[in-house]
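Sequence design from tokenized structure. All designs in this work follow the same two-part layout: the structure record, then the generated sequence. An example of the structure record is given first.
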């Protein structure tokens, strides 16, 4: 596992600005952080090269594309198959948006988004059919107050 890369306060401010809206122009970000447009461009390029910035992404409103139903599903391994063999199977399922290996009673926590409850049921059957999955425990989301919150990079240490 790679050690955490250190970023300076200026890079942190650039990341904070871009995490809120990655479509912002470098000129706009430069004005906010007090650098030239070229300097911001060069810093972003270096952060991309170092893997600090993995990618620029599009955020779609799930409800506007028919994905009205969200659930968190805890998945427990039966011990017969290693967890590393289960994760790739879950990655193949487009409804599984996130997968986290966790400590505790379960081995994974998955964020799943579907069109409705019946579609979630179908996904759960698919998950339970994966060799090594012993059981699932689902928590249905009633309302999402916020998600995908931009991080104020480096600002946590300032307090």
């Amino acid at each position: 596992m790679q050690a955490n890369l250190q970023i300076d306060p200026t890079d942190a401010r650039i990341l904070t600005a871009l995490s809120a809206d990655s479509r912002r122009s470098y000129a706009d970000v430069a004005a906010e952080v007090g650098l030239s447009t070229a300097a911001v461009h060069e810093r972003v390029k270096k952060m991309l090269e170092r893997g600090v910035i993995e990618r620029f992404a599009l955020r779609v409103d799930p409800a506007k594309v028919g994905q009205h139903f969200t659930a968190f599903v805890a998945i427990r391994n039966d011990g017969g198959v290693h967890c590393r063999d289960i994760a790739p199977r879950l990655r193949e399922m487009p409804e599984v948006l996130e997968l986290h290996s966790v400590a505790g009673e379960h081995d994974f926590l998955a964020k799943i988004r579907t069109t409705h409850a019946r579609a979630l049921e179908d996904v759960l059957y698919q998950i339970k059919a994966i060799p090594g999955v012993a059981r699932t425990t689902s928590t249905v989301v009633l309302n999402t107050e916020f998600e995908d919150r931009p991080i104020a990079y480096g600002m946590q240490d300032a307090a």
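Helices lie at 9-20, 26-33, 37-49, 83-91, 117-128. We note this feature because it recurs in several other targets discussed in the main text.
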